[in-house]
């Protein structure tokens, strides 16, 4: 018996990266996995992720869905419920960056990041809460960032969206606690992903120098934290933000 045996987890933006790592970790602990991404095909990794999860002996299905689209989200949730019967865990992981200094940032850059990073979480929480309330149990995890706690020059849109995810988790935790639904946020620091691997070596080295543990985090580090928040190991934890950053921001 795994920590999540018999439960269904829904993870947004999980065809690759942190989302995929969380999906695989949950599956290893017995959860059935529904996940979304803009496309579920071979080219963008969705079909491969689906096969990788199924190979762990659980049910898994990917859904092509724009997380920022309210109507699409409602239809996706209907399909997930038809296929899986319940949603016990929701991980709002979908996210993008469109960095730039405020004076150079366009309205389109601002709107896109807020829509994908923050509005998508509203969409999925709004659609999943009736199910979780009926079950009188559920764990919601918002994937925030340390820049949502401390800010970061050149990322006003991204930082604002991630700060919003933290406040959203705290507010949902207060509203839904009496219904047995918990909500928390994870704030990753400098994580070794395709996005950060694209940075020049000198920039990566400067980031690592700021981290007391002297290494970048891994997607496994984030997945382990998500597993803790999704499972009964954290049954008395709600409305919290856990910074997974190697001590970078103490």
From TrEMBL:
PROSITE patterns according to UniProt: ADH_SHORT (PS00061)
Question: From which domain of life does this come?
Answer: Bacteria
Pathway info = Lipid metabolism; fatty acid biosynthesis
Question: According to the UniProt entry, what is the EC number of this protein?
Answer: 1.1.1.100
Task: Indicate the segments forming the Ketoreductase domain, all copies.
Answer: 7-189
- What keywords were assigned to this record? Fatty acid biosynthesis, Fatty acid metabolism, Lipid biosynthesis, Lipid metabolism, NADP, Oxidoreductase
Enumerate the Pfam families for this protein: adh_short_C2
Which InterPro entries does the entry link to? 3oxo_ACP_reduc, KR_dom, NAD(P)-bd_dom_sf, Sc_DH/Rdtase_CS, SDR, SDR_fam
Catalytic activities: a (3R)-hydroxyacyl-[ACP] + NADP(+) = a 3-oxoacyl-[ACP] + NADPH + H(+)
**What are the protein's GO molecular function terms?**
3-oxoacyl-[acyl-carrier-protein] reductase (NADPH) activity
Its assembly, as annotated, is: Homotetramer.
What is the annotated role of this protein in its UniProt record?
Catalyzes the NADPH-dependent reduction of beta-ketoacyl-ACP substrates to beta-hydroxyacyl-ACP products, the first reductive step in the elongation cycle of fatty acid biosynthesis.
The family assignment reads:
Belongs to the short-chain dehydrogenases/reductases (SDR) family.
User: Which protein is depicted?
Assistant: 3-oxoacyl-[acyl-carrier-protein] reductase
Q: Which gene encodes it?
A: fabG
């Amino acid at each position: 018996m795994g920590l999540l045996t018999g439960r269904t987890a829904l993870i947004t933006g999980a065809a690759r990266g942190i989302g995929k790592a969380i999906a695989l970790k949950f599956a290893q602990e017995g959860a059935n996995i529904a996940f979304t991404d803009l496309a579920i095909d071979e080219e963008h990794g969705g079909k491969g992720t689906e096969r990788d999860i199924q190979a762990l002996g659980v049910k898994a299905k990917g859904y092509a869905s724009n997380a920022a689209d309210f109507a699409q989200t409602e239809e996706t949730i209907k399909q997930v419920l038809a296929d899986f019967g319940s949603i016990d865990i929701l991980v709002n992981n979908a996210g993008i960056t469109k960095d730039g200094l405020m004076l150079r940032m366009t309205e389109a850059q601002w709107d896109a990041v807020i829509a994908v990073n923050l509005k998508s979480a509203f969409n999925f929480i709004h659609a999943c809460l009736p199910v979780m309330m009926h079950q009188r149990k559920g764990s919601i995890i918002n994937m925030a960032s340390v820049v949502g706690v401390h800010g970061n020059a050149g990322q006003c849109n991204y930082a604002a969206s991630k700060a919003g995810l933290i406040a959203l988790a705290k507010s949902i935790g207060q509203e839904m606690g009496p219904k047995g639904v918990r909500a928390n946020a994870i704030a990753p620091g400098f994580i070794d992903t395709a996005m950060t691997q694209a940075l020049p070596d000198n920039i990566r080295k400067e980031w690592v120098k700021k981290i007391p543990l002297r290494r970048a985090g891994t997607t496994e580090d984030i997945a382990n934290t998500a597993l803790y928040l999704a499972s009964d190991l954290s049954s008395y934890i709600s409305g919290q933000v856990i910074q997974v950053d190697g001590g970078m921001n103490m």
